[in-house]
């Protein structure tokens, strides 16, 4: 009787299933726009760390897990599913807008009373998770809600898989729309309101459709009629949970490795996520078609897990051993869209097979669990919850525990083993049930043979996974065309970044992070690092305390060790592995800074530290990673510079690095204009000797003329002899020589910077501008334009006529030299 009533109940809405599919496409589109926006928000609050990714993925999956479980238990089946769905969509859009406007000030308020370091990061992470939980719970309830409108038959379960596929298809488009258009050209507010409008449109259409498609809930089965949970169903739940674990664990591991290969820009993150979602959607579509006529969905689910063993191994071999050695030089084209096509092809090659199998696992698990449930919403919620619980464990476990503890090589081996365990669960469940298949009994010996063969195959594949080449950690996307033949001295994988130290044929050493060279003992690099430290020391009024943002090779921080008047040096570094393991390779150049008693190390994101610290400093110097690296543009925003200014003592100074290589003139202008928006009379110094190309921005709380005579005296003082020698060793033979690196001042460069985009927390435009210029070689053009715009103002330098004349001659000589032979970086 129940089956007859259900059939008549389901016949009414079946013709409307395609319309509901459209709702789910829009819902997935909006959800991924929110996810990209929220990840950007978390980078401001927690930092560009593994913790921010773990919070995003964990909260996203955790909220959807709670929502999927709660719907069937809180909302009665008598409520019209479409009206409930509409309310959920409206709630998602409204709360997402509230998160956008209330999370940042709440984080700022909390930061005023919170701590720093790991404890501070943990509490900031909990605050973010609390804000994101509500909208993700509502997202998780949408699929179980729609399931109540779908018949509990093989065809109905197939439609549930199709709805899931449509949701993923929308997610792919939303990921690309947010990463390549909305956030590149607009800001987080625009992206959020676009997503909220999509939610509102879906809600309105669902309310309208509910008026034409009445709903009558099936009668609840008596307690005595409810089937107990069978062994096969338990195996299905455990298998889909492990499938979620391996899927999110692999996403974390492969995103990290592919970011080395492709360059860790915002565009790379969007491409990898889009390929992953595309695979899930294609696999879910195939799985939905299979369950319509499948005689044993559980066996098919087991085959998916067995094939995943091979697919995960395929991705590991591709990323670790094959793709790095494809004869590809991404720098051959300056067109970013051609480069993105190449990046997309490499991601598809490695990730798509496994992603398709993870996608197919979900509808197969639904079909395997369906016979145990009369309430489709409860069934979908249970399967979805099992999958997301596994996903949470995978996201958090691999990002925060396994990668720092055992590295990406063993993490990939663990993924292969976990997929094999999932396949074994199905085999053992079938063995226990007598192994019926297609109306006959499969011999027990065949199943026992498979039970033996699966772990052996997994062990062989896992053992064969090669280690990631050390050169990939050093050169990343340019591994096939490095600047020198390296000898790798150190390779390590930390929680937030992969680091390496290499040495060239001339025994020059380089420090690499996230596949990019960031520091070294080459004269160009040494000049930059020591300019960042020595300029504020020689030009600032009697400095005593210093904050160094970013440790690098420790050379900038070590510059302050040479000055006896410095009493306190605070170094803020986001990756603990760098000072601990890298510092010793550059101990001669950094004056053993880690052993100096005046040094205090703080392991935190720089923004988080500055927000939570009550201390003010005489000097703050920032040497962040290149602004095209995802997350680093947060250290180039107007709001960040305003926070820095508030933490400077009266007369305090700040220096900030701006690279001229691997970037566009628009990005450089944006960096300078943003800095000048907070420090209007800031000075630009340029490191352009011996084919260099870096800029040091110098800002003051209370701008004052530079007394050249005092700078010369300070340079020549006996107690500063070690500092003076460190400058002479890199080519600055005198104070006049150092000051001749003058390249302009804010007011004098205003015409050149007219129309430049100001990088703010709300839009982070810089990381999109810089990411587009990854392969652009505009260093000569930028240098020439900057030199043409340079003026020597009469009110900037003061002192005796003799020293001023000497300085002017030195500056003009540098200007003529720059015009004659524009620099090219090594």
Walkthrough of the structure:
The protein has 826 residues and is α/β, with parallel strands linked by helices. Helices cover 62% and strands 10% of the residues. The chain has 26 helices and 16 strands. The strands form 4 sheets. The protein has an 8-stranded mixed β-sheet, sandwiched between helices. Strands 3-4-5-6 form a 4-stranded antiparallel β-sheet. The radius of gyration is 30 Å and the shape is elongated.
CATH architecture of the largest domain: 3-Layer(aba) Sandwich
β-strand amount: 5-15%
State the secondary-structure class. Answer: alpha/beta
Q: What number of structural domains do the residues give?
A: 4
Protein topology:
Blueprint: H1 2-11, H2 17-45, H3 50-74, H4 81-111, H5 117-147, H6 154-185, H7 188-212, H8 231-262, H9 266-293, H10 297-322, H11 336-369, H12 376-432, E1 436-437, E2 440-441, H13 444-464, H14 470-475, E3 487-493, E4 498-503, E5 509-513, E6 516-520, H15 523-539, E7 545-549, H16 555-561, E8 568-573, H17 577-582, E9 599-603, H18 606-612, E10 617-622, H19 638-646, E11 648-659, H20 665-678, E12 683-687, E13 694-700, E14 706-707, H21 708-716, H22 721-728, H23 735-739, E15 742-745, H24 765-772, H25 779-789, E16 797-798, H26 801-820
Parallel strand pairs: 7-8, 7-10, 8-9, 10-11, 14-16
Antiparallel strand pairs: 1-2, 3-4, 4-5, 5-6, 11-13, 12-13, 12-15
Helix pairs in contact: 2-3, 2-4, 2-5, 2-6, 2-7, 3-5, 3-12, 4-5, 4-7, 5-12, 6-9, 6-11, 6-24, 8-9, 8-10, 8-11, 8-12, 9-11, 10-11, 10-12, 10-13, 11-12, 12-13, 15-16, 19-20, 20-24
């Amino acid at each position: 009787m129940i089956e007859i009533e259900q059939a008549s109940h389901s016949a009414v809405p079946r013709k409307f299933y395609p319309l509901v599919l459209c709702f789910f496409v829009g819902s997935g589109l909006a959800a991924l726009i929110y996810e990209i926006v929220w990840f950007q928000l978390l980078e401001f609050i927690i930092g560009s760390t593994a913790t921010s990714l773990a919070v995003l993925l964990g909260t996203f999956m955790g909220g959807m897990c709670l929502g999927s479980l709660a719907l069937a238990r809180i909302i009665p089946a008598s409520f019209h599913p479409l009206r409930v769905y509409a309310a959920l969509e409206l709630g998602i859009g409204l709360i997402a807008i509230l998160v956008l406007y209330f999370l940042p000030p709440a984080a700022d308020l909390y930061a005023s009373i919170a701590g720093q370091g790991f404890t501070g990061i943990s509490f900031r992470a909990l605050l973010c998770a609390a804000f994101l939980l509500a909208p993700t719970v509502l997202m998780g309830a949408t699929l179980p809600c729609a399931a109540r409108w779908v018949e509990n038959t093989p065809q109905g379960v197939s439609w549930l898989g199709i709805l899931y596929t449509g949701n993923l298809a929308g997610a792919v488009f939303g990921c690309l729309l947010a990463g390549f258009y909305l956030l590149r050209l607009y800001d987080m507010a625009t992206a959020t309101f676009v997503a909220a409008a999509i939610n509102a449109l879906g809600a309105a259409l669902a309310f309208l459709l509910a008026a034409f498609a009445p709903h009558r809930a099936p009668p609840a089965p008596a307690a005595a009629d409810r089937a107990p949970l069978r062994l096969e169903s338990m195996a299905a739940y455990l298998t889909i949970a492990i499938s979620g674990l391996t899927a999110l664990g692999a996403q974390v591991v492969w995103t990290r490795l592919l970011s080395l290969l492709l360059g860790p820009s915002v565009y790379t993150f969007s491409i990898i996520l889009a390929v992953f979602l595309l695979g899930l959607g294609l696999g879910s579509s195939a799985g939905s078609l299979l369950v319509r006529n499948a005689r044993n969905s559980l066996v098919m689910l087991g085959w998916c897990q067995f094939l995943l063993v091979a697919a995960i191994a395929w991705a590991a071999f591709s990323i670790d051993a094959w793709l790095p050695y494809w004869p590809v030089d991404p720098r051959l084209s300056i067109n970013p869209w051609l480069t993105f096509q190449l990046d997309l092809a490499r991601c598809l090659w490695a990730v798509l097979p496994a992603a398709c199998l993870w996608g197919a696992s979900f509808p197969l698990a639904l079909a395997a669990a369906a016979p145990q449930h009369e309430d489709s919403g409860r069934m979908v919620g249970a399967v979805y919850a099992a999958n997301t619980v596994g996903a949470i464990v995978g996201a958090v476990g691999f990002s925060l525990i396994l990668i720092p503890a055992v590295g990406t090589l063993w993490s990939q081996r663990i993924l292969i083993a976990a997929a094999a365990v999932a396949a074994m669960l199905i085999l053992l469940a079938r063995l226990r049930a007598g192994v019926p298949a297609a109306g006959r009994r499969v011999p027990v010996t065949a199943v026992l043979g498979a039970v033996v063969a699966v772990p052996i195959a997994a062990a062989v594949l896992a053992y064969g996974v090669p280690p990631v080449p050390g050169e990939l950690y050093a050169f990343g996307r340019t591994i096939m065309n490095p600047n020198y033949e390296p000898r790798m001295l150190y390779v390590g994988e930390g929680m937030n970044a992969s680091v390496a130290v290499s040495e060239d044929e001339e025994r020059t050493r380089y420090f690499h992070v996230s596949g990019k060279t960031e520091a070294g003992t080459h004269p160009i690099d040494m000049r930059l690092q020591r300019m960042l430290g020595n300029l504020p020391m020689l030009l600032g009024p009697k400095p005593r305390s210093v904050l160094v943002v970013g440790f690098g090779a420790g050379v900038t921080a070590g510059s302050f060790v040479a000055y006896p008047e410095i009493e306190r040096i605070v170094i803020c570094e986001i990756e603990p592995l760098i000072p601990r393991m890298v510092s010793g390779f550059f101990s001669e150049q950094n004056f053993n800074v880690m052993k100096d008693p005046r040094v205090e190390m703080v392991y935190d994101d720089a923004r988080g530290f500055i927000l939570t610290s009550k201390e003010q400093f005489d000097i703050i110097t920032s040497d962040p990673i290149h602004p095209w690296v995802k997350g680093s543009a947060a250290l180039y925003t107007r709001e960040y510079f305003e926070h820095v200014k508030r933490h400077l003592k009266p007369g305090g100074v700040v220096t900030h690095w701006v690279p001229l290589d691997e970037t566009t003139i628009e990005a450089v202008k944006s960096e300078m204009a943003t800095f000048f928006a907070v420090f209007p009379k800031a000075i630009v110094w340029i490191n352009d000797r011996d084919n260099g190309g870096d800029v040091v921005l110098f800002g003051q709380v209370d701008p004052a003329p530079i007394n050249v005579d005092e700078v010369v005296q300070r340079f020549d003082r006996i107690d500063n002899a070690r500092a003076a020698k460190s400058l002479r060793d890199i080519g600055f033979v005198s104070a006049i020589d150092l000051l001749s690196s003058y390249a302009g001042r804010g007011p004098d460069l205003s015409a050149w910077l007219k129309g430049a985009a100001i990088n703010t927390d709300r839009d982070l435009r810089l990381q999109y501008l810089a990411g587009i210029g990854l392969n652009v070689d505009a260093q000569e053009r930028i240098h020439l334009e900057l030199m043409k715009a340079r003026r020597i103002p009469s009110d900037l330098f003061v002192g005796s006529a003799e020293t001023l004349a000497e300085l002017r001659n030195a500056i003009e000589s540098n200007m003529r030299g720059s015009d004659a032979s524009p620099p090219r970086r090594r």
